[in-house]
Amino acid sequence: MYNSANATGVWHSLFLLCLCEITDTMLISHSKQFIFIHNYKVAGTSIRAALGKYRLSPLHRFQMKIGLRAKNHHKISDNHLTALQIKEKLSNKAFDQYFKFGFVRNPWDWQASLYRYALKNKKHKQHEIISRMKDFESYLKWRVKHDFRLQKAFFYDENDNCLVNFIGKYENLAPDFQYVCQQIKVKEHLEHRNQSQKRQAYLKAYTSETIALVQEYYAEDIATFGYEVPKL
Predict the structure, then answer these.
(1) Tens digits of pLDDT across the chain (232 residues)
(2) Would you tell me how many other CB atoms lie within 10 Å of the CB of residue 87?
(3) Alpha-carbon separation of residue 112 from 117, 119, 166, 167, 200 (angstroms)
């Protein structure tokens, strides 16, 4: 016999399951009320490792208990959604109230790191095309013409409104991460995985021409986040 109360409960459970599937690609904690916006190559893997456990909600634990969710579900997938994309997936109340944060990186260092990572990681979606390029300069020219993206786009909307509460810097990673921990009231230590080369080592990949190329195309990031043009 049809039971409306049971049907309502089933639909409610399905809704919650769908909501969990949406948030599984993002580092969002409802218990600690924070949202991590994962820009590329800013120690995001380490940040997710340190804070990922706070995603484990009572619903997740229930799903694990009845076999609907694997025990390693909290290992977050490699999705890099912008703050605006996340805002569109959450309720206004949750997005407005939660502490939203992310990190940026020196644009010259950022591009060198993106290049090295895609080149050495055969599973990277751009590995094949980048591995066929002659050198770093060829990569940069391709990037700015065919796959251009500002770091600012992770944190600002189309009207230039900042959607997050805090944007830390990769160059100031440890203290900025501790500031985040203070804001969300947790005590965590950041083990920096996927570490890049020593500071300023990225400049070995550059010429005066490629320095100028990044300066031209990423001028908005440079100005917004207070970076200076490096000297060779």
Answers:
(1) 545 454 444 344 333 434 444 444 578 998 999 999 999 999 998 999 999 989 866 565 455 455 554 444 333 343 689 999 999 888 888 899 999 999 999 999 999 999 999 888 888 889 888 988 899 999 999 999 999 999 999 999 999 999 999 999 999 999 999 999 999 999 998 876 555 455 678 999 999 999 999 999 999 999 999 999 999 8
(2) 18
(3) 9, 11, 25, 21, 11
Q: How many residues can be counted in the chain?
A: 232
